[in-house]
Amino acid sequence: MSILPDDFTLLQVTPELETGGAEQTTIDVAHGVIAQGGKALVATKGGRMASRLEADGGRLAQMPAQSKNPLIMLGNAARLIDLIRREKVTLVHARSRAPAFSALWAAHATRVPFVATYHGVYNAKSNLKRWYNAVMTKGDLVIANSEYTRAHVIAEHGIPAERVVAIPRGVDLTRFEPGLVSAERVRALRDAWGVQTEDRRLKVLLAGRLTRWKGQALVIEAMARLKAISDTRILLLLVGDDQGRKAYRAELEHMIAQAGLQDSVRLVGHCDDMPAAYLIADLAIAPSLEPEAFGRTAVEPQVMGKPVMAADHGAARETVVAGETGWLVKPGDAEAWAEALSNACESGAARRQAMGMAARVRARKLYSVDAMVEATLKVYARVLETKS
Fold first, then answer.
1. How many whole angstroms separate alpha carbon 352 and alpha carbon 350?
2. Beta-strand relationship, 308-311 and 234-239
3. What confidence category does residue 172 fall into, taking pLDDT thresholds of 50, 70 and 90?
4. Which of 44, 151, 255, 259 is within CB 3.0–4.6 Å of 224 for a Cys-Cys bond?
5. Which residues contact 98 (CB under 8 A, 6 or more apart)?
6. pTM confidence score
7. Which residues, in sequence order, are bridge partners of residue 62?
8. Which of 280, 209, 201 is closest to 238 using CA atoms?
9. In a 3-state reduction of DSSP, which class is residue 59?
10. Left (φ > 0), alpha (ψ -120 to 50) or beta: where does 295 sit?
């Protein structure tokens, strides 16, 4: 049964379609609208994911949507007004702050419903920045990507709770499906990383770009503490690109060398095959120093049947159930992380496997793309109902 009315046309507005969670969600929702018989347009600068939108039957409306130049934003508003009228757009959905201004102006001018997704907890150190962020709350409803983000939006902008809906980001259950990852893929990655099949150590994987707030240095410090008490049962794999942060990478390499951890900690670089990476791991960790608004790297391994150890703040409190699907650890505390990693070793393979299976069942139910798309389409239907 269709959630959406007949002749429904969605216009999503996003800066680019290069890569990332917000961009993937844009493609997924467009696909969901088309599957229900509707039309899906995306106003954007373009990018490598545009071909996937068009392959699904969506349409690209190319414009400099990424620009923060006020004159270009005004021009974008005029382009969007024209597009909305020409394509008989039913609802406008903005996914980023700069293009949200143009999208909001266009929606008001054409009297079309407007919603926006708050994809992260934006920092506001001034009233001007708070005003800029608040554009995401000016529509008929606000979608937050977690309950943590939802609480922040309500507190920060003082808007009624009923106007903010939490819809967690979806994970592609087909891609992150252990049964579809070939032994060859896992073997290729093992060879590339130098991880022997017979290595009995606890393989701990931290996925995330090399940046301080993701917590790589913290976990190396925790590993150094474990080594000091002769606890060398762990192999830590740091997966992620430095994205030009050469100084931070050099700092991590120095920490590893100083602690004599060259055999226990590996910086393996960027990985294109994360499903295979999670199959090599026994445990995934997300030690972020700052709260994650959603935290994909705490959810994807759970979908793959792996328990997760995460910092006890932000959305990790929603995505990881302590003692059931993983562990929550005091943020920024190397001693606490050393103890938690030691406890994970002590828990034994059978216990970790049981937690991984519980994690898989829960994550597949709560964080699927299908669940995310259905919840988003229901928001559209709700907004249209209140407007009719």
1. 6
2. unpaired
3. confident
4. 259
5. 15, 65, 66, 67, 68, 73
6. 0.86
7. 44
8. 209
9. strand
10. left
- 114 contacts 92 by C-beta, under 8 angstroms: yes
Amino acid identity of residue 273, one-letter, is D
CA dist., res. 332 & res. 329, Å (int) = 9
In terms of Cβ atoms closer than 10 Å to its own Cβ (0-12, 13-18, 19+), residue 227 is: middle
Beta carbons within 8 Å of 280's beta carbon, 6+ residues apart: 186, 189, 190, 193, 195, 203, 205, 237
For 209-269, give the DSSP string.
-S-GGG-HHHHHHHHHHHHHTT---EEEEEE---TT-HHHHHHHHHHHHHTT-TTTEEEEE
Name the amino acid, one letter, at 85: R
Structure tokens at 79: 């382009």
Helix (H, G, I), strand (E, B) or coil at 168: coil
**Kind and range of the H or E run holding 35:** helix 21-35
Structure tokens at 314: 């932000």
Amino acid identity at 173: L
What confidence tier does 293 reach under pLDDT thresholds 50, 70, 90?
confident
Pick from 14, 114, 36, 173: which is nearest to 379 by CA?
114
Q: What angle do CA 72, 119, 55 make, to 5 degrees?
A: 75
Q: Are 218 and 188 in contact (CB under 8 A)?
A: no
Q: Are 67 and 39 in contact (CB under 8 A)?
A: no
Q: How far apart are CA 202 and CA 233, in angstroms?
A: 6
Q: What is the pLDDT of residue 1?
A: 66
> In this predicted model, what pLDDT tens digit does every residue of 345-380 receive, in sequence order?
999 999 999 999 999 999 999 999 999 999 999 999
* Centroid of chain to Cα 118: 12
- What is the arithmetic mean of pLDDT over 211-223? 96
- How big is the CA angle at 119 (ends 115 and 121), to the nearest 5 degrees? 120
Give the number of C-alpha atoms closer than 13 A to the C-alpha of residue 234, restricted to the C-beta side.
Answer: 31
Q: Phi-psi category of 51—alpha, beta or left, where left has phi over 0 and alpha has psi -120 to 50?
A: alpha
